[in-house]
C-alpha cells in the first residue's frame, strides 16, 4: 500500500487530498485505511483488478467507485497508419517552447472539454474546477520541463494539444485534448493517434506508445479499440469526501 499526500490538490480542487494505491499483495484492513485517510477532506483509493475484498470493503466505508482507469499501449510496428491516412498529410505538430505558445494552448481549455474526468463529474467539484486542475497540471509540467507540450495542427488550424514524455523507447501520453470547437468533426482519432503520427513525422526512435484512459469516456475508449491498442491493466478508482 502506497500513500501519497497530494499537497498540490489543495490548489487544484481546494481540498486536502490523500491518494492510496493498493498493491496486489495487500489485504483489506478497515482500521488501516481509516488511519491513513484521517485528517484529509478528499480520499482517493486505487485498487487493482481481482481484489474484491477492497471493492466491497471500501463501499461499506462510504467510498464510491467513480471510474476504472485502463492502461493501454501499442507497439509502433503494430500501429495501423492506414486508419489515419486521411488526416496524416494535413496534420502537423509544434513543440510549445515559449510563453505565447503556452498561452495559446491554455486559452482553448474550457469547462466541458474534459467532461468525463472524475473531478468534473463529481458534484462536489464540477467542470470548472476540473478544467482548472488540468490547466494547473499543464503549467507545472511546462515550467518543470520534464515533459513536452505539443500543439496539434490540422489544416493550419490549432485543434488540440498533447503532453508527452519520452523515456527509453516509449512515448508516454500523459494528457491530450481536442478543443471543444473541433469536437464532433471527425478529428477524434487524432487523440490516440497523434503520438504515433508525431514520432513517424519526426523520425524518432520510439518503439511503443502507452497511456491511461478512463472508462467514463466511452468515445475515446472506442477510438483506442479501433486502433487495436492492447489493454494491459485496469484499476478501480474509489473516492470519498470527508469531514475533518
Would you mind describing this structure in some detail?
Strand 2 (17-21), helix 2 (30-37) and strand 3 form a beta-alpha-beta unit. 30% of the residues lie in helices and 32% in strands. The chain is of the alpha+beta class and 244 residues long. The chain is globular. The protein has a ten-stranded mixed sheet, with helices on both faces. The protein has helices spanning 9-13, 30-37, 52-60, 85-88, 99-106, 127-144, 190-202, 218-226; strands spanning 2-5, 17-21, 42-48, 64-75, 91-95, 148-154, 157-167, 170-178, 208-214, 230-241. The model has no long low-confidence stretch (mean pLDDT 95). The protein contains eight helices and ten strands.
Give a topology summary.
Elements (H helix, E strand, L loop, with lengths): L1 E4 L3 H5 L3 E5 L8 H8 L4 E7 L3 H9 L3 E12 L9 H4 L2 E5 L3 H8 L20 H18 L3 E7 L2 E11 L2 E9 L11 H13 L5 E7 L3 H9 L3 E12 L3
Parallel strand pairs: 2-3, 8-9
Antiparallel strand pairs: 1-2, 3-10, 4-9, 4-10, 5-6, 6-7, 7-8
| Cα radius of gyration in angstroms | 19 Å
Report the mean per-residue pLDDT as an integer.
95
With strands numbered from the N-terminus, the spatial order across the biggest sheet is 1-2-3-10-4-9-8-7-6-5
| Shape designation | globular
Largest sheet: 10 strands, mixed
In total, the number of strands is 10
Task: Estimate the strand proportion.
Answer: 25-35%
> What is the helix/strand order?
EHEHEHEHEHHEEEHEHE
Amino acid at each position: 500500500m502506497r500513500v501519497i499526500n497530494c499537497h498540490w490538490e489543495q490548489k487544484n480542487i481546494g481540498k486536502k487530498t490523500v491518494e492510496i494505491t493498493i498493491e496486489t499483495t495487500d489485504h483489506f484492513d478497515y482500521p488501516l485505511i481509516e488511519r491513513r485517510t484521517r485528517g484529509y477532506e478528499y480520499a482517493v483509493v486505487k485498487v487493482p483488478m481481482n481484489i474484491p475484498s477492497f471493492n466491497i470493503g471500501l463501499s461499506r466505508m462510504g467510498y464510491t467507485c467513480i471510474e476504472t482507469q485502463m492502461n493501454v499501449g501499442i507497439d509502433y510496428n503494430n500501429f495501423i497508419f492506414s486508419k489515419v491516412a486521411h488526416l496524416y498529410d494535413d496534420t502537423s505538430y509544434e513543440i510549445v517552447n515559449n510563453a505565447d505558445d503556452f498561452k495559446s494552448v491554455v486559452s482553448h481549455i474550457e469547462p466541458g472539454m474534459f467532461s468525463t474526468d472524475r473531478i468534473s463529474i463529481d458534484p462536489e467539484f464540477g467542470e470548472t474546477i476540473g478544467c482548472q486542475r488540468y490547466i494547473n497540471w499543464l503549467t507545472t509540467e511546462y515550467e518543470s520541463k520534464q515533459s513536452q507540450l505539443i500543439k496539434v495542427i490540422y489544416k493550419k488550424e490549432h485543434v488540440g494539444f498533447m503532453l508527452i514524455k519520452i523515456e527509453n523507447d516509449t512515448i508516454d501520453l500523459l494528457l491530450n485534448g481536442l478543443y471543444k470547437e473541433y469536437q464532433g468533426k471527425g478529428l477524434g482519432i487524432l487523440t490516440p493517434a497523434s503520438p504515433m503520427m508525431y514520432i513517424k513525422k519526426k523520425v524518432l526512435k520510439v518503439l511503443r506508445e502507452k497511456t491511461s484512459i478512463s472508462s467514463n469516456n466511452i468515445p475515446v475508449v472506442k477510438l483506442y479499440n479501433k486502433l487495436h491498442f492492447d489493454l494491459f491493466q485496469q484499476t478501480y478508482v474509489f473516492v470519498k469526501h470527508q469531514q475533518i
